[in-house]
Specification:
alpha+beta; single chain; 11 strands; Endonuclease, Chain A; 2 domains; elongated; Tscrpt_reg_HTH_AF0396-typ3; Transcriptional regulator; 12 helices; WH_DNA-bd_sf
């Protein structure tokens, strides 16, 4: 009696990993062994199980997914990668408000991998964001969606803009009102700069900040209780940046550009 397909796929890491490796096309056995860091004696029995369930076929020493296998793996891969993204720290994700992520992108959180949960001490919160800004100096742009600015934000903007970095900024309505009241000259200078595009998001912004450049993405959600948390998520991959661009487009289309105040 054959095993249920879910058991075939998920009850063995070698079988699951083999299926994912074959998603992009046929692979030679030696390639599979190298990628999985295993030996032929360990892998062959697992591949035979996949073949017995019509998920994989082979000719000589080359293995590939069957049409059924490809159909299943195409559906399974996003789930596996999403769980990998959340497994980085499931307690973190489970205790933070991620309702600000559009449903379509929430289903594609697998594209953010690899990610790490960064936990700077309270006295080094600024330093973590400072390091991200320093990395941005080597990039062409930085896109920020935020409900807060550090007190020294004029210096941060001056450094990035003088480095030729295009600054795209979306702020919450409450932050914009505060900036106009408390830092009019500074924010006027930033908005007037030729490399700055400045927007206001009129709805409630229920996260702290979302920042990305050409190489990295930094996400700072609030706790589920609405409380501040000094920890943030740092993702570094082309897929994460593409995901971030779609995220920014979602908020951009609901924001109002500010060209003068």
């Amino acid at each position: 009696m054959k095993k249920p397909l879910l058991d075939v796929i998920f009850m063995s890491d070698k079988r699951k990993s083999t299926l994912l490796l074959l998603q992009d096309g046929a692979r030679e056995m030696e390639d599979l062994l190298t990628s999985l860091k295993t030996n032929r004696q360990s892998l062959l029995p697992q591949i035979r199980v996949l073949e017995e369930h019509n998920l994989v076929s082979h000719e000589k020493d080359v293995y590939e997914l069957t049409p059924i296998g490809k159909s299943i793996v195409d559906k399974m891969a996003p789930l596996v990668h999403t769980t990998e993204a959340l497994d980085v720290d499931i307690d973190y994700w489970g205790t933070h408000d991620i309702s600000f992520i559009p449903p379509g992108l929430l289903e594609r959180m697998d594209e953010l991998t690899p990610c790490a949960i960064m936990s700077p001490s309270t006295e080094k919160i600024y330093e973590a964001h400072y390091e991200f800004n320093q990395m941005t100096k080597q990039q062409k742009f930085q896109f920020s969606i935020t409900s807060f600015f550090y007190p020294n934000f004029p210096v941060i903007f001056e450094e990035l803009l003088s480095s030729g970095v295009e600054m795209h900024v979306i702020v919450s309505q409450s932050l914009f009102d505060k900036l106009k009241a408390d830092s009019y000259e500074d924010i006027h200078k930033i908005i007037s700069h030729k490399l700055t595009k400045f927007y206001v998001y009129p709805k409630k912004m229920n996260f702290l900040a979302f920042v990305f450049n050409e190489a990295s993405v930094m996400i700072s959600p609030l706790k589920s209780t609405g409380e501040f948390d000094n920890r943030h998520v740092l993702c570094k991959s082309p897929g994460a940046v593409r995901w971030a661009k779609e995220f920014s487009e979602h908020y951009l289309k609901m924001s109002v550009q500010i060209t003068e105040i």
